């Protein structure tokens, strides 16, 4: 199950204020972007609503944006049009990427914003990472950001109701995450995300979706990266932090 057909329409309520403008989203990767030539070929392989892809194009890079969700790819194309950015969009899940692009094509591949946990278990994750690695040119880098699943699992199943309304497109919404933490790491887990748009003068409009995910420990991810020919160059992993970034280069 891929999902995001429903959430794609309201995804901006899930993006922080600070990262909503493409230029701000891309700026959060300045350290790694400094490693690239100015006309670099880059791929965002889980592009969501396109903030990163459009931001990268704004820096003069040749950008391809892919996602398993047709609705997400459409939103990325719309954002690119709104910003006058040149972004090639393709609907493809990670395993399909080698059908669309030649090996050794990209200087950098991004898989960011809590996407990789949607790959189905160790086998699915291995296949996804293998695709990403194949598309990188030798010396090219994969940039991956992730939740710290060690922390998420330790908290167990729970409900997170954001303690402030999020305002987007003139509408306020309450955001709710329901975490279904399975007994074992390797089991399928679920996150249900609900966005309830509230208005004192009209009905509450709720959009929600149940997403499947398969968590992984940082140490597993490191091994899996090495198995597909990627060598960790930088990692911000910290057991006390909610998220981390890994940059791994193709040997
Ligand atoms: C949490 S969103 C992150 C989107 C974006 N990268 C961001 O940071 O806002 C996860 C994205 O991964 C995509 N996705 C899930 N499974 C996928 C797969 N097997 N192949 C490619 N993309 C996938 C979803 O459609 C969704 O757009």
Observed structural traits:
251 residues; alpha/beta; seven-stranded mixed beta sheet; five-stranded antiparallel beta sheet; 12 strands; 27% helix; globular; binds S-adenosylmethionine
Major sheet strand order: 3-2-1-4-5-12-11
- Strand count, sense and closure of the main sheet? 7 strands, mixed
Order of helices and strands: HHEHEHEHEHEHEEEEEHEE
Q: Portion of residues in helices?
A: 25-40%
The backbone outline, from C-alpha atoms, is globular
- CA-based gyration radius: 18 Å
Could you tell me which ligands this complex binds, including any ions or cofactors?
S-adenosylmethionine
What is the beta-strand fraction?
Answer: 25-35%
Mean pLDDT: 97
Distance between the termini: 32 Å
- Let me know the number of strands: 12
Low-confidence stretches: none
Look at the helices and sheets and give the structural class.
alpha/beta
Q: Enumerate how many helices there are, as a single number.
A: 8
In short:
With 251 residues, this protein is an alpha/beta fold. Helix content is 27%, strand content 33%. The protein has helices at 22-27, 30-33, 51-58, 70-83, 97-100, 121-135, 149-155, 218-227; strands at residues 41-44, 62-67, 87-91, 106-111, 136-147, 158-161, 166-168, 171-180, 189-198, 205-213, 230-235, 243-250.
